[in-house]
Amino acid sequence: MSENRESIANRSWVSFSSPHLWAFCIATIALRLFVSNVGFFASPKHHDSLFWSAKQQGNILSICASLESVPGVVESDFITRDTSDRYEPGTNATLIKNATIFTGEISDGEKVVLTRSDILLDMGIVKAIGNLSLTYGDSNISVVYANGAWVTPGLIDLHSHLGVMSIPLTEGASDANSKKGPTVPWLRSIDALNTHDDGFKLAVAGGVTSVKVIPGNLNAIAGEAFMIKTRPTSKRSPSSMVIELPDLWNVTKQEGKYVPWRYLHQGCGEDLIVYNLTRMDTMWTLRSAYIEALQHKKVQDGYCADAQAGLWASLPTEFPRSVKWELLTEVLRGKVKVSVHCNEAVDIDSMIRLSNEFQFPISVFHQASEAWLVTNGVLNETWGGAPAVSLYATKHRSKRESFRGSEFAPRTLAEANISIAMQVRVSPAMSSRDLMFEAQQAYHFGLPAHLALASVTSVPAMIAGLSHRIGKLREGWDADVVMWDSHPLRVEATAAMVWIDGALQIPSPAYKPAMNIANPERRKMPTAPNWDKERLTASVWDGLPPLSNRKEDRKIVFYNVKEVWTRRSNGDIEEIFPSPTDPDMNGRGRVVVERGSLICVGGNDMCLVSEYDAVDYINLHGGSISPGLHAYGTSLGLEEIPSEPSTGSGHTIYNPFMDDIPQILHDVGGITRAADALTFGTRNAKVAYRSGVTAATSYLTGPQGAYPRVVLGLSTTFRTGSAHSMQYGAVIQDVTALHISIAMPTVGKDHVGVSDQVAALRRLLFGWESTDTETGLWFKRAAEGEVPLVINVNNADIMTTLLLLKGEVEDRIGSRMRMVFSGATEAHLLAPEISNSGVGIILNSLKPYPTTWDGRRILAGPPVTNDTTLSTLLKHGVTVGMGMKGPQMAQIMRFDLASIAFQALKSMDRLEVLALASRNLDILLGVREVNRDVVVYDGGSLFDLSSKAIAVISPQRQGVDMFGA
């Protein structure tokens, strides 16, 4: 039998060597390939449920389950960590003794401020708060004695372009705005983050420890933003700066415990004009993008529904993903914090409707100039609940859409239970370093102190979904800490020490500025004025109150006056009360004013007025009277809105290096006179006037964003409170100075070389242009010293060339030129030479920012350097004036002066500080008529955050302008 079987087997084998064998083999291979998911007879994209492995099914089901996961963390789980994931090995522990701690809490009144308390930082986290012992284990520990100084959480800026609009600006490092279309949700700011941005160290100098780096505002959907820490890391990479990496990168994540938030930034309104989009176009573009994301979400949800139902045979081999619509799909799943850059109510409302249409929450509206006008339920209609609002305190009206912005917006929104975060103005020239300054201004205009501090600490942390680790000082939170040399809401407050993740950043190990944290007076919280009437009026007038003034011709008696400063006939400032011989009069003086003149100044028992006279008595509550301020360097009084040509003289201003000057002008330089374009009664001028700025010198600069002009024309000086140019005293000086600009090429603009600019200037000053033309006439007068030549210049090497040119001109024609450098970021490098040449300086900023390459060598000032550009120039006897960056800045000019007054107590008295924005500017600009208007402040001096201007006394106009609500 066995033989038969063997013979049969042999015969079978032999028979299969025929074509039957090949058929059998092919069938067997095909079956094996089919079973292994690559069969010739099965679809390459589908499986039968019999052939899915358990592991493959598990992976798909895990992905589907993750779609429903909710971002966030349970604080109790997170704060039990012993070491921060951001801890840098080798960092010493730090014990801060005897501090006044603002914890960041705003709901529990007992925990808002902890006095005379200690705080221990170790392993990158806050280990303990309370009355702590000096000993702490076996670790190395640094002990800092705060002596009662204020300590806050590290500040958080939610609207930053740090690293993507990096400074100094260059063609290769300006990555904020994509030009590939209005909706680009697939872009990520982390891919452009420049770790060498000079802005990071300046942000830290302002106490800013975390920022949200957003793409630009010119896209309807700009892309993914990232929350980062501002300190450099040992890895020196952008990824290592990110606070919490998203799931797709976070290789060390703990499965099932924590899903980090992601961030999307959107824009709307005027900015989309770069794509020729109207508001209707923009909303259609947004809807189209969200419809794409919704369809993608439905595909994923359908896939998971089949997988969870066990219908494996119908499923593709790969989970459906779209790189383009992945982040927007996550938005629809509620896993993304969406920020929207919008100003007007129409845009805010449109975005709220979009959120309801596609059912996604909005985390925060940025800038939101009109949000304060729609607090009556509109914001609460957002899908998922009312968003927060991030905005700046002042500096509105740069665009039409921000024209109704108000300094009272933060308080109004807070009273409507809307969470408030402060931000700096969106511009590379405005540093995150100024973030606390925004909180200080918001407090001055009515935002409660604890909310003002929270607006830059715990509230932005909450908005970002990171309140479990930053924004507060609690045990287990990240060790991001700032110690201030003053109460943080005082305008002079400087970050004395800054720790990020427990590592000391300020002062740097290489340089330690001398900071004074022991002054108990500076630790007191400043008081704020009462703005109830002004706020109500602004609201009633839909953000545009008339700002009218009541002129008083009869006698007015101001009493309880602390001090009175006036200007002499030669322009010098003098203190006439209190008398040096009777210092006890301080705070109880009396001033009688009649027809704009101070007819009596003395103690309260002096300057008595007859009971038969018609008199108004006004209590100044320890207030003061001082000379009006002088604004320089902006288009104040030349236009209503800087970005709107239709609101002023228009923006067609010829550049002789780029344009053919029309023959009708018969002028090679195309020189214009700003006086011909004066526009009185603009809102910026009215706000400036009511803020103590009574005079302004302005010149035509051309449109924003255009190529820079070299010849800027002739400036004019006028009174900000005048109604029109024919009103008596309205125009102080028809022609003030001749203005030009000499600079290196600007990013993205056509530009003339520096040597060409200087060559043209040399020719014009040597007198080679006929004086029959405006150009020839005024450059001749500038060369002869008849009018000042004011040059916008930042670079020290260009300044050197100009100083040499000044000498050439003076030697050639035997004159003495009156040259002034405006801007002058790098002037500190040439202070002795500038002084010896008799050149004056007008600084545009007290906290310089290296925006462009030709002004990158800044002297940052405390806490980075002990000296400032101002102190260096004054030390060498240079006459210095203070300018501004924009017309909106006039409202807060006195806050800048206050900061100088407190920081320079040993080197400058207050009269010298006031001269920076009055007498010195008059001298530098050649203003011949002394502006003798004086401003009346209630509740303190112009240097006090507690005071506000209530009137202007004008001898020229023979009356008193009383400011109504």
From TrEMBL:
Zinc-finger keyword on record: no
Keywords for this protein: Membrane, Transmembrane, Transmembrane helix
MF terms (GO), sorted A to Z: allantoinase activity
Domain Amidohydrolase, first and last residues per copy: 448-503
One Pfam family this sequence matches: Amidohydro_3
Annotated GO biological process: purine nucleobase catabolic process
Parts of the chain that traverse the membrane: 21-42
Protein name: Carbohydrate esterase family 9 protein
PANTHER family membership: ALLANTOINASE, AMIDOHYDROLASE 3 DOMAIN-CONTAINING PROTEIN
Any GO CC annotation of this UniProt entry: cytoplasm
